[in-house]
């Protein structure tokens, strides 16, 4: 069976650049989006966790989609994060994203209220029915408090506009169960799983780390597709210290990613409260991991 790729395979969970004063930086967003697509991303996910969706307004979310669409044109898919803990509000955001030019919608499980599985299923179906865009269901129970259970995903796969999953469940067995029984496109939402999920039939990734090293992460999947699985594993392993520094060093990925992009002279800006900027020690660790990756054997992609 051919793995479905409704939005491509190498997607970046893009940060939302802000100006020094904290305003939305649309010029920076366009510049960053153009760089990401030019260096290997065939899709961009806007206003997700890494994009600080809890602290951007509805108007900012729509403006971001419009600006990034203008910057990348048809060179990449755009998936807009619209999930909230309110079904009706999520529908409003979905319709606004569709109007702004998105190709798909990222819909996270409602958080805080922790709906049971039947209510969760109804929530996703109502959103899928409201818009003409395909949905990526975002399963990240560590943040939402609610798992989209594999059996629920299997039922939802029957909806014609529910086409994909961003998997941050840390349940590799559950993911394989859904892959076996549906045609849902599965995207790794945790960078340490990019290759592992791809190897068992996943579609690709929606990556935070790709904000910084898009070409290096794409090289992992390219090597696997070329049949060089040993090289793919080696490339994934070489990227692991940077993945750990960005994702698992005790700070949110948004904070570490923006800190590193700023040090590299790329559009980022500050994070919005309640998040706080990374301290100097964390920044130095990020730079060390990045430098090690980029200088190993000259450059990762030269291995």
UniProtKB/TrEMBL annotation:
Site residues (Part of a proton relay during catalysis), renumbered to this chain: 49, 112
- Enzyme Commission numbers on file: 4.3.3.7
Q: Does the keyword S-adenosyl-L-methionine apply?
A: no
This chain belongs to which protein, by name? 4-hydroxy-tetrahydrodipicolinate synthase
Q: Name one GO biological process term.
A: lysine biosynthetic process via diaminopimelate
Task: State how it assembles.
Answer: Homotetramer; dimer of dimers.
Q: In which pathway does it act?
A: Amino-acid biosynthesis; L-lysine biosynthesis via DAP pathway; (S)-tetrahydrodipicolinate from L-aspartate: step 3/4
UniProt cross-references to InterPro entries, sorted A to Z: Aldolase_TIM, DapA, DapA-like, Schiff_base-form_aldolases_AS, Schiff_base-form_aldolases_CS
According to its UniProt record, which reaction does this protein catalyse? L-aspartate 4-semialdehyde + pyruvate = (2S,4S)-4-hydroxy-2,3,4,5-tetrahydrodipicolinate + H2O + H(+)
Where do the annotations place pyruvate binding?
50, 206
Active-site feature positions: 138, 166
| Stored SUPFAM superfamilies | Aldolase
Q: Which NCBIfam families match?
A: dapA
Q: What is the lineage of its organism?
A: Bacteria, Bacillati, Actinomycetota, Actinomycetes, Kitasatosporales
Q: What does this protein do?
A: Catalyzes the condensation of (S)-aspartate-beta-semialdehyde [(S)-ASA] and pyruvate to 4-hydroxy-tetrahydrodipicolinate (HTPA).
The family note in this entry says:
Belongs to the DapA family.
Q: What class of enzyme is it?
A: lyase
């Amino acid at each position: 069976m051919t793995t479905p790729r409704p939005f491509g395979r190498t997607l970046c969970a893009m940060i939302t650049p802000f100006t020094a004063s904290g305003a939305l930086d649309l010029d920076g967003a366009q510049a960053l989006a153009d760089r990401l697509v030019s260096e290997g991303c065939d899709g961009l996910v806007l206003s997700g966790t890494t994009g600080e969706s809890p602290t951007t307004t509805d108007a900012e979310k729509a403006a971001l989609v419009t600006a990034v669409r203008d910057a990348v044109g048809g060179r990449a898919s755009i998936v807009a994060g619209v999930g909230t803990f309110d079904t009706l509000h999520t529908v409003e955001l979905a319709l606004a994203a569709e109007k702004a030019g998105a190709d798909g919608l990222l819909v996270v499980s409602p958080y805080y209220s922790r709906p049971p599985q039947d209510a969760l299923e109804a929530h996703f179906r109502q959103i899928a029915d409201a818009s003409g865009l395909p949905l990526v269901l975002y399963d990240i129970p560590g943040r939402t408090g609610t798992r989209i259970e594999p059996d629920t995903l299997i039922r939802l796969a029957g909806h014609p506009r529910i086409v994909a999953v961003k998997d941050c469940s840390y349940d590799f067995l559950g993911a394989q169960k859904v892959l076996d029984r549906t045609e849902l496109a599965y995207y790794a939402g945790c960078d340490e799983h990019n290759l592992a999920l791809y190897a068992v039939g996943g579609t690709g990734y929606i990556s935070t780390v790709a904000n910084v090293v898009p070409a290096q992460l794409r090289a992992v999947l390219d090597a696997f597709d070329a049949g060089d699985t040993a090289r793919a594993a080696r490339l994934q392993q070489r990227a692991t210290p940077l993945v750990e520094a960005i994702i698992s060093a005790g700070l949110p990925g948004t904070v570490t990613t923006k800190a590193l992009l700023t040090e590299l002279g790329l559009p980022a800006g500050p994070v919005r409260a309640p998040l706080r900027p990374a301290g100097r020690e964390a920044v130095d660790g990020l730079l060390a991991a990045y430098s090690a990756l980029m200088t190993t054997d000259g450059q990762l992609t030269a291995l």
